[in-house]
Amino acid sequence: MQLPVTRNEIRKHIRKLRIALTTAEQNLASLRLVEQFKQLAELTQAKNVALYLANDGEINPELAIQWCWKNSINTYVPVLHPFTKGQLLFLKLTPTTELIANKYGILEPKLSVCNIIPVAELDVIFTPLVAFDVHGHRLGMGGGYYDRTLAPFIDGHGPQAIGIAHDCQQLSLLPTEEWDVPLNKIVTPNKTWNWSLSP
């Protein structure tokens, strides 16, 4: 079988792999993800974190969100900016938050200015991804939403970005573009990957 080499080929290949995971495999991955969360130093003092609502076979962080709630960590999820194309807003998520589907069919909180948090006030942003490599490079869905969100904080000031993925989404090397924002840390059900981006 010919291995995927372009970014779009990799996206198609990895998305097929994660969509093929059984319900039991997805549930086990979610449980193990919480165990990894319990070990994260970034969460010991965190007050505000961003996660996401799973779609398209992504690892489901619902149990991790519930763990954050139990540990008095405010949890926010991304919402497509209604006026600025390609940008995200982050809205508070609670057990009673009303959810609606956006243009991609992904659930998100109903927009309310009262529930928006400035990105700079987040302690950690847990980002979904399609694939990652052993150097911390992240491949998203192609819209660039998270790259634009994280770009102002690439110097280390502001929220810490941590990727979340299934173990099957890891590759040895990804083709990268100049606008890609690499990650210092990626959490999978079986491992937490750490990288130093210092020269």
Automatic annotation (TrEMBL):
It holds the Pfam family 5-FTHF_cyc-lig. It comes from the Bacteria. Its EC number is 6.3.3.2. Keywords: ATP-binding, Coiled coil, Ligase, Magnesium, Metal-binding, Nucleotide-binding. Residues 7-34 form a coiled coil. Signal peptide: none annotated. SUPFAM superfamilies: NagB/RpiA/CoA transferase-like. ATP binds at residues 7-11, 138-146. It catalyses: (6S)-5-formyl-5,6,7,8-tetrahydrofolate + ATP = (6R)-5,10-methenyltetrahydrofolate + ADP + phosphate. InterPro entries: FTHF_cligase (IPR002698), FTHF_cligase-like_sf (IPR024185), NagB/RpiA_transferase-like (IPR037171). This is 5-formyltetrahydrofolate cyclo-ligase. The gene is fau.
